[in-house]
Amino acid sequence: MPTGKLHVVPLGGLGEFGMNCMALRWGDDIIVIDAGLMFPEAELLGVDIVVPDISYLIENRKYVRAIVLTHGHEDHIGALPWMLSELNVPVWGTEFTLAYVEDKLDEHGLLEQADLREIRPGENFRIGAFAVHPIQVTHSLVDCVALAIHTPLGVVLHTGDFKVDPTPTDNRLFDLHAFAEYGKEGVLALLQDSTNVERKGYTASERAVRRKFDEVFARTERRLFISCFSSSIHRIKLAVELAWEHGRNVAFIGRSMVSSAEIAEDLGYMEIPQGLLISPGEMKNTPPEKVCVLISGTQGEPMSALSRAAVDNHKHAHIEKGDTVVLSSRIIPGNEKAIYRMIDHLFRRQAHVIYEDGSSPPVHVSGHASQEELKLILNLVKPRYFIPIHGEYRQLALHAEMAAAMRGSVGNVVLIESGDILEFDELGARKVGRVNAGRICIDSGSRSDVVEDLVIKDRRHLSEDGIVLPIIAINKLSGRVETSPEIVTRGFEPGEDGFAEGARQLVMQTLELSSEEEKADYGVIKEKIRADLKRYISKQTQKRPLIMPVILEI
Ligand SMILES: [Zn+2]
Ligand SMILES: [Zn+2]
Fold this sequence. Notes:
Distance between the termini: 77 Å
Radius of gyration: 25 Å
Strand content: 15-25%
Bound molecules: zinc ion
Largest sheet: 8 strands, mixed
Structural class: alpha/beta
Helix content: 25-40%
Number of strands: 29
Strand order of the largest sheet: 8-7-6-4-3-1-22-23
């Protein structure tokens, strides 16, 4: 047995939803698995993304050898621009994952200097003291891998995100054999996705939504809008196939949807027959019964294509009486209000709206393994140590409890959270301390825009740049804007005379360009005013005051 210590240090994702990131260390070699973000909750006003605190990696900068990615979801790759601007290390990922990464790094002007290295399932590669074996798994996205990391003390198996889908639409199967082989040879530790530990049974295959889609295509008489996450490649592929079978043309709307579909087509995950695709502009000249639109915005994000279409404020996507809108995604907790508000707008336009309501066949299936699949992997792998990952604390704890009851398959169960250092040596495993871990809020993805936490951000905002309150009076009955908006500022020195008048006019203009429904939806209208004013103020004054639109009903 070699002497030395292996450290497993989760920096995010254990005890919270999102920002998955974990360091493995042996001597002078550190590898990082995943670099994810967390989407900010609504109360983090004005913060664009949340990333994990990586001060442990920065302090040990010279030992960090690489970042290895399991797949291309934002909660696994979204913090890369921020992390790579701190640590310039190679990034390993599968072909599809790297295509998403390239897009993202390009957006931040970081692609040139990035060192991206492609991996393939089944092909081992070495990083310092570690040999890494990527194993093909199935998930809601394509080209996803688990990682078997060979360390001097034994194999650490990190599942990444997965479900055991026996019929993925790309026919690239979950490599159960590899898991079983490792189980026979012996595995030091299994780190497994806890997302769906509360669900009994098995998660349905991606193909399970085909029946529902088929039904909807057959029944829809006018235009059909389908919205899903732009990364739901299996879903987009099914929709495209069915559109072809049912004689509908396809238009992609929304930036992320367009680029994701392009990547999927380029890499051979989806075939788009000649003549099937139409541009959004061509929709108005195509008979409604011949149109299928794949549109982004399932979560009711105020500025997304579907939200704008729902209030008739999209250049190309108009929703009319008798159209059908399918929301093929889950309702992420915290987004309920925004989503149901959007659905209300769609109902008001007399569209048929189909969303996940528990009925069968399903319009959406989860991408994560349920209890029986988790147990299956545990039985195949038979790890000496089991560590639940990727979940809120309750999910980690339930996963630990479930594994502890499986005495035939599992040695010891260890429950750790982000920031804990779990140490392995020839004698066993134990928690030996903590590193800094937590959330870092960032405006617009750059390093200079780090916001330590909400309170500090607000205080700094207020002390340095002050506050701007655009006050708009709306008549409750007529929905009309009654008087010219007022712009109140505190601690903010606009500098030139024309500022208040310019800001007032800008708000008026935003209001004029908004539909009646947008004006009636205070969430939407406030966000529009805030975004427009932010742009105006930073252009005029190079300052970034806190902007809080206030709507008075009179
Ligand atoms: Zn995922
Ligand atoms: Zn994930």
